[in-house]
Design brief:
With about 260 residues, the protein is an alpha/beta fold. It has 8 helices and 10 strands. Helix 1 links the parallel strand 1 and strand 2.
Length: about 260
C-alpha cells in the first residue's frame, strides 16, 4: 500500500500535461502512485499518458469514455490504494516538497484532512500570486468545523489538500456526476470539511493554480448553473445529517449567496 494516491483527472490538456506529471514525479517523497483518468480526451493527451506510463511504474493510466469530472474522480477514488488521497488538476503543477510536508502534518496529527494555501499562476507572464485563503490563526493545530464553522466558507481548492482514504470510505463521500467539469469540487469540499473530526491547515502554498487555460470549464457561461446542483447536493447532505444542519445551515446559506454573487 503506497502512502499516497495522486488522482489526476484529464481532458484535452496536452499543452500542460507534461509539466503537471513532471512536477508530481519530482516530489521529494517517492512512495506514491499516480492515477491518471483520461476522460475521453480528443487531443494527444492519451499518447502523452501512455509514454509516461512506460517511463515510471508508479503511473497508472485509465482511458475512459467521456463522462465528466465527477465520474472521473469517483473512478479514481475507487481504484486508489494509498493511505492518503491527493488531487492534482492536469493543467496545474506543484512544488517538489508538497506531498512530503503535507503527509508529515497528516501522520503527526492523525489528520483526516490537511489543507494548504496555493498560488494563482498566470502562465502568459509567468506570474504568481498567493491565494491567501488560509487563516493563520487556524493553522498548525488540529481543528474541526464544529468548533470553527467559518472554515466551510473558504475556497474549495480540493487540490491543495490531502485526505485520509479511510475517512472518505467510512463517510462514503463522493463527487456529483453531473455533466462536464464545472464546480464539482464545491459539495465535495463542504462535505469533507463538515464531517472531518481532525483537520490541519497550513498557510504554506505549494500548488500553482493556472488561471489562463483557455479551455478551462470555469470560463464557460453555459455551465455556470451547474453550481446550483452543487448547492442542492449540500442541502440534501445537511438534510441527511440533521445534527450537522443545526450547526452549518446558516454557513451554507452565506456561502451559497456569496458564490452566486
Amino acid at each position: 500500500m503506497p502512502e499516497l494516491s495522486v488522482i489526476v483527472p484529464i481532458y484535452n490538456v496536452e499543452k500542460y500535461l507534461p509539466q503537471c506529471l513532471d512536477s508530481i514525479l519530482a516530489q521529494s517523497m517517492t512512495d506514491f502512485e499516480i492515477i491518471c483518468v483520461n476522460d475521453g480526451s480528443k487531443d494527444h493527451s492519451q499518447e502523452i499518458l501512455d509514454a509516461y506510463k512506460e517511463k515510471d511504474r508508479r503511473i497508472k493510466v485509465f482511458h475512459r469514455q467521456n463522462s465528466g469530472y465527477g465520474a472521473s474522480m469517483n473512478f479514481g477514488l475507487s481504484v486508489a490504494a494509498g493511505k492518503y488521497i491527493a488531487i492534482v488538476e492536469s493543467d496545474d503543477f506543484i512544488a517538489g516538497n508538497m506531498f512530503e510536508e503535507l503527509l508529515t502534518l497528516a501522520v503527526n496529527n492523525d489528520a483526516d484532512i490537511v489543507k494548504s494555501d496555493f498560488f494563482y499562476y498566470f502562465s502568459a507572464k509567468n506570474q504568481i500570486r498567493t491565494g491567501g485563503k488560509i487563516d493563520r490563526l487556524l493553522s498548525q493545530k488540529v481543528i474541526n468545523a464544529r468548533r470553527y464553522p467559518r472554515i466551510l466558507k473558504i475556497n474549495p481548492s480540493i487540490w491543495s489538500a490531502i485526505y485520509k482514504r479511510s475517512f472518505l470510505q467510512e463517510t462514503q463521500i463522493s463527487f456529483l456526476e453531473t455533466p462536464g467539469a464545472s464546480f464539482q469540487d464545491t459539495s465535495f469540499a463542504f462535505k469533507t470539511l463538515a464531517l472531518a473530526k481532525r483537520i490541519v491547515f497550513t498557510p504554506r502554498a505549494y500548488l500553482y493554480y493556472r488561471q489562463d487555460n483557455e479551455n478551462s470549464s470555469v470560463h464557460s457561461k453555459e455551465k455556470v448553473f451547474m453550481i446550483c446542483e452543487e448547492f442542492n447536493e449540500i442541502t440534501d447532505f445537511l438534510n441527511r445529517h440533521p445534527d450537522l444542519k443545526s450547526h452549518f445551515n446558516s454557513v451554507k446559506l452565506i456561502k451559497q449567496y456569496q458564490t452566486y454573487m
